[in-house]
Amino acid sequence: MRLITLFALAASVAAAQPVSRPLHPLIQQAVGEISERRISATIHKLASFGSRNSNGVVAGEDKGVAAAGRWIHSELASYGGKLQVRYQPFPVKKGGRFVRDTEIVNVLAVLPGTTQPDVFILVGAHYDSLHIKSKPGAGAAGWDMEATAAAEDAPGAADNASGVACVMELARVLANRPLEKTVVFIAFSGEEQGLVGAGGYAQQAREKKERIEAVLNVDTIGTDVTGSGIAAGPRVNVYSGDPMDSPSRSLARLVHDVAGRYLPGFAANPVFRSDRFGRGGDHTPFHQAGFAAVRFTTPTEQLENQHNGLDTPDRVSMPYTTNVTRAVGAALMHLALAPKPPVVGVLGRGASRYDADLRWKQDAPEADLAGYSVLVRSTTAPFWEREIFVGNTDRTTLKNVLIDEVVLGVRAIDKDGLESLASAWAIRERGR
Ligand SMILES: [Zn+2]
Fold first, then answer.
1. pLDDT digits over 189-218, tens only?
2. What sign for the dihedral angle of Cα 77, 70, 36, 170?
3. What is the whole-number distance in angstroms between the Cα of residue 399 and the centre of ligand 1?
4. What are the residue boundaries of the structural domains of the chain, listed by start?
5. N or C, which end of the chain is more exposed by having fewer CB within 10 Å?
6. Helix 318-337 crosses helix 36-47 at what angle (to 10 degrees)?
7. How remote is the CA of residue 225 from the centroid of ligand 1, in Å?
8. Which residues of 228-248 are buried (b: 16+ CB within 10 A; e: fewer)?
């Protein structure tokens, strides 16, 4: 009897307030300007540097990782608009995968936000590449470090010129567009040496208490068929770390929703894992530092062509890479235009002791804020199941909702209908 009553009440809540999701014209327009020709040109150019191994052993005017970094910098600067382009160097010592003391250099293009300049949305891809040379008995990984650093053919077209081409194309398309939050376009280095450039960025951001709302890491989006002939279909995987209501998981859900809205027929497919089996990427240090961070990767990597001389532009699907760029771009722009997520404060059972009483806070609410939605799902459901718009308030009570069996969340909605990331209230387990 109790169960039936609860179900009936929950169903009536679901019907109360349908939430419409209009498409934002700026996002539609900018997604339409993303150019496959430019993406292809960038991948070909990056593959032409011989090797982008971040040891920097392969050197020369137009070869090696430093030359690639200089080219990325000059390209980003040539897009004009409001982009502020700079290098972000980190010194590293010989050891591990470094055969000498050197410097890891990220290349950044910052697009200052119009109304929320202190809130950052990051989109990044590593531009370093790798050609593993092994030798028997050379440690756990079997790498010959010196030979690996000196290999002159590490074209890295899929891993990860494809991701860099995505990030650079988005910088070009957005250079002159007004986005409310600050967007940072990043070409990371030192990924193949242990996520050095991204780790340095995440550590600095944490020390400086930067308000990074979301990190979109784009890594290996160049192929839509495996070496064994399995096709990806129209989808890209979006990896996010645990737990189930981590900020990263919340970001993955939003990315899935937004990409589906702007690219019907192409899915941003959430994978509820931090990364592929036994592997990591540049989103990992951000996730570990508590920021919301996800990774975009094709489900169909060509593993036999990875980290060697065979990762060449002719093996890349430019149409597929362009579609992933559109999905990343739609999510990026949405995040940069939408309100900040609120902070869920207190959850209780209300005065009746049989309701869900939810409160939240929003510091410096946006001028175009319309109000808040409360979100509900069962503890076993991957996505939010119900959304109830409750207006511009900081508290609501859901009658006869048993807080023990659901996850509750809140998000802000602006007057264009753009929704913020969801902040979930996960009940803390006690007394185990
Ligand atoms: Zn990679």
1. 999 999 999 999 999 999 999 999 999 999
2. negative
3. 49
4. 2-20+342-425, 33-337
5. C
6. 110
7. 17
8. eeeebeebbbbbbbeeebbbb
The CA 76 to ligand 1 mean position distance, Å, reads 21
Spans in the chain with pLDDT lower than 70:
1-20, 138-141, 426-432
- Span 58-71, pLDDT tens digits: 777 899 999 999 99
CA–centroid distance, 281 to ligand 1, in Å, is 7
Q: Do domains 2-20+342-425 and 33-337 have the same CATH topology?
A: no
Decide if 182 contacts 117 (C-beta within 8 A): yes
Taking the centre of ligand 1 as the mean of its atom positions, its distance from the CA of residue 98, in whole angstroms, is 17
Taking the centre of ligand 1 as the mean of its atom positions, its distance from the CA of residue 74, in whole angstroms, is 23
pTM: 0.94
**What architecture is domain 33-337?**
3-Layer(aba) Sandwich (3.40)
**Do the bridges between strand 406-414 and strand 423-425 make them parallel or antiparallel, or are there none, so unpaired?**
antiparallel
CB 369 within 8 A of CB 414: yes
pLDDT at 12: 43
2-20+342-425, what's its fold? Immunoglobulin-like (2.60.40)
| Residue 298, phi then psi, degrees to nearest 5 | -65, 145
For the chain, the distance separating the N- and C-terminal CA atoms, rounded to the nearest angstrom, is: 30
User: For the chain, how many helices (H) and strands (E)?
Assistant: 10, 15
CB 108 within 8 A of CB 188: no
Q: How many CB atoms lie within 10 A of CB 70?
A: 16
**Contact status, residue 10 vs residue 386, Cβ threshold 8 Å:** yes
Q: How far is the CA of 189 from the centre of ligand 1 (A)?
A: 10
- How far is ligand 1, taken at its centre, from the CA of residue 192, in Å? 7
310-314-317-322 Cα dihedral, nearest 10 degrees: 110
Helix pair 318-337, 25-32: axis angle to 10 deg? 160
Instruction: Say which residues have a Cβ less than 8 Å from residue 429's Cβ, sequence separation at least 6.
Output: none
- Return d(Cα 374, Cα 319) in angstroms, integer: 38
126 CA from centroid of ligand 1 (Å):
7
Nearest-5° angle of CA 215, CA 281, CA 266?
65
Separation between Cα atoms, residue 417 and residue 204, nearest integer Å:
34
- Residue 129 Cα to ligand 1 midpoint, Å, equals 8
Tokens of 427: 């009940």
What DSSP character marks residue 32? H
Q: What is the pLDDT of residue 6?
A: 40
